[in-house]
Amino acid sequence: MTQVRDAYNRMIDAMNVPGLEIPTACIKFYKQDDEIPQAVLECEPQGLTLTSCQSTRQAGFGDNVLLTSDTIGCVAAAISFGLVDQKQSKPLGESLVYTDIMKEQSGLGEEFTPPSPKDFTEGTVYACAAAQRPEFALFGDGDTGRFETVDAAKTAMADMMAIQPADTQAVFFYSLDFDDADVEADVVVQAARPVELTRIIQAYQFKTGKRVTASMGGLRVVNSDLIVRPYLTGELNISTACLGARLIAQWDADRMGIGMPWPVFNQIVDGMTLSQGGFPFQAYPGAAVA
Q: What pTM was computed for the model?
């Protein structure tokens, strides 16, 4: 049994609800000088790209995905993870999950030029209507863009944490049971129902007494809010799932996200176990699994 599977099992057992499962993904960053184990390299997708939202969800279901600048399907996530310089003016690739949607709705066919990381950073992608860049829309002629103005887009992006300057070689999304290589998670992400989040926060406070200040937006939620923010700050964060997570990765309607550095996840597991007598989760309305 892996270390993370053991920790997860102890958490679930302490919640005292038969059949309870919380989709859980582990994330490991590999910097440019790091050696990536062969078993991890073999998890890189072949012939397709995946978004971070898809990869997180798939890891929660038991799959393992290694994303590099060649296989990540979302330019915004590539910026957040430090796989690409945020001011790069060259498009990341000709065919990515996210930009393929733009290409299809644009009607430009092979004349379509995908947006570059710089286009995202300067706000023209997220404020495509205001920037008069209809080819960057996602939903056709009536698409308002994600922000009313380019300035609003820039303001939002200024608070989206990113690993910049870029120094990341790859990001590994793996399941609780991955044991083909010696890997320790940097961040653990769970897709939890609100009732489960209640109990998780109670377990965290039982150990630390700390309140949780959540920082969230409507975009780059999984990559920036739930992975990079905990990775850089050392603190847990809670957020909703974003546009890409809901529409592309198909995150369930009753799920929110919580991202935790590995040491914090262990704190929560301990708190969950020790505080069972004070927080009868099994009696919370909706806690039982249908």
A: 0.96
